[in-house]
């Protein structure tokens, strides 16, 4: 703003105030011009001053305010008053200069007014913008900083301390590259160079925390422009470590078994698919092994699933270590594992399968139990046994089942005849279901006797299947299938009801009562309807409960102590007796058996068969008999096929036997003809005694 210094006498002379000259200058000025006399009255003003509303109004109508736009100026604060008092006015809108006469006396004042509203609004907007930026910069939860074109940090917000541990005093002039993990440094700087070319960049990178650890950041580089030139780079970095960890965990769980941390079924199929693709290109073989732990369900049923899970973890760790992680081990679920051998041969696959069985051979110590676990392995070879993943896997599975059928604890390679066996198995399942509906099943009864007198003491009901086309089908073929498919539950119910009805049929035919033993499978015992089912079978048939003996396996007795004891007590309340079948082959202990309501122990035939020639079996049988006597329960030996066995058992204290030496399983009619006596004869014998 240019202020013209005027002399008072010249100011008011006719020469300076010639209208034609002054009007041309003053009226075209943007600033408002007002000349006041010494009394403060305006002598002259231009059009701009009038447009600004500074003159031409009543004094009361004119209002002047402080720069805040709200606080009115007091009279003594008015610009012309301050000028007339000899003060220099240098405010935002007004500039004034006193005018003196030649003698130095004050003649008036010249004030120039300029409308700076737009500039003030622009300044205010700039100030607000700066405050917003500062707020965004200072309080942003993510790291916000800017660096020069050499990659040196100029400024950063407090988040860099909270997220990465660096104090603000450490950062000035620090190189951006020094904050990046070495493995990502080159890539991060490539993005930096691209940003310097005006291309914003977003990417993930591993950065270095002040403590030396790594953290995952999602970084955005934004070019900083000043007057159209890039002068630096803004950086916004978000800590995504938690998200990455969550993502990594989700990915791990998607491809790994949560119990053993082994790769899972999904991982197995993808890995095998990649190996087969590579093998096709190279013309090599791939072996696929299916490993199923033998009778592992028994451990879950006897010791509980928690113990079973611990055993699975031990098995997984032992196999991984034993295979030296050379061959990947996968857990498909339950007690099923797979091993894949790339670029191998049948001979090498057989060696690895043998190694796996050797690794399992060493017992597993679990609390007070020493567990002996074996496995059955099926092997299929690509491309000979299948051209794709599904076929190779299916054939390995079939070979594994063949290994189980061959006695378990072995391995078998796939052969084409297994397809026929698998189809026959599926057909048998269908036929067994139909047999239950068509009454093709029948019961045979194996007599039990007292050794000394060879008198009948009871019978055991055994199911038999006479197929209309295939003829007799061995229980060894269809009972395991019934267990596997769940058909054992309706099959077991049919056996129970039929056996109770047969007992009453013998009674109606005039024969005396005979003890009827019926087997219960693990699935039947765990059926919630079991007690109700037994009660219904007794009630509907009219059979007295005292003549029904329910045989449970030793493994059932170890499912869950409280559960088993409660169910056994419920069955005992019905009046039936309880026997433990195949005793000596499971994990039961004397302390458990003493707490159960057991009436009879059945010594397993595997110990009886070589009783006279095997000292170990002899000692086992002797110990079982002593245990039974200490528990005050009855004893019966199964599988007695020779007279010498019968005599030795009697000498050891076992009075009851069952086996081919006394009688094979018979039809109901044969039992009636050979062993049962009419009721009146039984009464006469009782009276005679």
TrEMBL record:
Domain GGDEF, which positions?
284-416
Tell me which residues make up the EAL domain.
425-679
Domain PAS, which positions?
129-199
Q: By its UniProt entry, which PROSITE patterns does this protein fall under?
A: EAL (PS50883), GGDEF (PS50887), PAC (PS50113), PAS (PS50112)
The PAC domain covers 74-128, 201-252
Gene3D superfamilies hit by this protein: 3.30.70.270, EAL domain (3.20.20.450), PAS domain (3.30.450.20)
Spell out the NCBIfam families in the cross-references.
Answer: GGDEF, sensory_box
Could you identify this protein by its name? Answer: EAL domain-containing protein
Which organism does this sequence originate in? Answer: Paenibacillus filicis
């Amino acid at each position: 703003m240019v202020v013209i210094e005027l002399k008072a006498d010249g100011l008011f002379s006719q020469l300076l105030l010639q209208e034609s000259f002054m009007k041309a200058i003053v009226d075209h000025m943007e600033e408002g011009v007002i000349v006041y006399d010494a009394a403060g009255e305006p002598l002259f003003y231009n059009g701009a001053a009038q447009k600004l509303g500074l003159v031409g109004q009543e004094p009361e109508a004119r209002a002047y305010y402080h720069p805040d736009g709200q606080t009115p100026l007091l009279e003594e604060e008015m610009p012309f008053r301050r000028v007339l008092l000899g003060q220099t006015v240098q405010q935002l809108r007004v500039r004034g200069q006193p005018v003196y006469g030649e003698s130095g006396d004050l003649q008036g004042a010249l004030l120039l007014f300029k409308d700076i509203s737009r500039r003030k609004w622009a300044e205010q907007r700039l100030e607000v913008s700066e405050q917003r930026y500062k707020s965004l910069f200072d309080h942003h939860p993510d790291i916000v900083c800017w660096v020069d074109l050499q990659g040196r940090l100029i400024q950063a917000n407090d988040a860099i301390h909270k997220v990465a541990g660096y104090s603000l005093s450490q950062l000035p002039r620090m190189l951006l590259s020094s904050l990046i993990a070495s493995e990502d440094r080159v890539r991060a700087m490539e993005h930096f160079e691209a940003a310097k070319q005006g291309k914003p960049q977003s990417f993930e990178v591993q950065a270095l925390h002040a403590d030396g650890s790594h953290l995952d950041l999602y970084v955005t580089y934004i070019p900083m422009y000043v007057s159209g030139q890039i002068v630096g780079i803004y950086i916004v970095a978000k800590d995504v470590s938690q998200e990455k960890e969550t993502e990594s965990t989700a990915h791990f769980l998607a491809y790994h078994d949560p119990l053993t941390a082994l790769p899972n079924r999904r991982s197995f199929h993808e890995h095998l698919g990649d190996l087969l693709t590579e093998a096709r290109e190279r013309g090599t073989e791939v072996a696929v092994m299916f490993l199923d732990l033998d009778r592992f369900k028994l451990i879950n049923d006897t010791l509980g699933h928690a113990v079973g899970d611990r055993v699975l973890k031990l098995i997984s760790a032992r196999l991984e270590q034993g295979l030296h992680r050379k061959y990947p081990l996968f857990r498909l679920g339950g007690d099923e594992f797979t091993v894949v051998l790339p670029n191998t041969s049948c001979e090498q696959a057989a060696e690895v399968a043998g190694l796996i069985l050797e690794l399992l051979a060493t017992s597993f110590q679990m609390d007070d139990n020493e567990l002996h676990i074996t496995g059955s392995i099926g092997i299929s070879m690509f491309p000979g046994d299948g051209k794709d993943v599904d076929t190779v896997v299916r054939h390995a599975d079939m070979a594994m089942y063949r290994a189980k059928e061959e006695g378990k604890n072995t391995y078998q390679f796939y052969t084409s005849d297994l397809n026929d066996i698998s189809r026959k198995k599926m057909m048998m399942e269908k036929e067994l279901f139909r047999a239950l509906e068509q009454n093709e099943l029948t019961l045979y009864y194996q007599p039990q006797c007292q050794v000394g007198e060879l008198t009948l003491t009871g019978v055991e009901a055994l199911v038999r299947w006479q197929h209309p086309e295939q003829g007799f089908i061995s229980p060894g073929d269809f009972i395991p299938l019934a267990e596997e498919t769940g058909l054992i539950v309706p099959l077991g119910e049919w056996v129970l009801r039929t056996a109770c009805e047969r007992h009453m049929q013998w009674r109606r035919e005039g024969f005396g009562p005979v003890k009827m033993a019926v087997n219960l499978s693990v699935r039947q015992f765990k059926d919630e309807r079991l007690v109700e089912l037994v009660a219904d079978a007794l009630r509907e048939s009219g059979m007295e409960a005292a003549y029904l003996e329910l045989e449970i396996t030793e493994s059932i007795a170890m499912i869950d102590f409280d559960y088993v004891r409660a169910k056994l007590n419920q069955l005992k309340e019905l009046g039936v007796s309880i026997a433990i079948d195949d005793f000596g082959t499971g994990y039961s202990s004397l302390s458990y058996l003493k707490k159960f309501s057991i009436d009879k122990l059945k010594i397993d035939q595997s110990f009886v068969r070589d009783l006279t020639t095997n000292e170990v079996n002899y000692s086992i049988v002797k110990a079982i008999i002593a245990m039974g006597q200490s528990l005050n329960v009855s004893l019966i030996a199964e599988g007695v096929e020779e007279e010498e066995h019968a005599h030795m058992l009697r000498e050891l204290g076992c009075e009851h036997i069952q086996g081919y030496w006394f009688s094979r399983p018979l039809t109901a009619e044969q039992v009636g003809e050979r062993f049962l006596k009419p009721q009146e004869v039984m009464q006469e014998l009782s009276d005679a005694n």
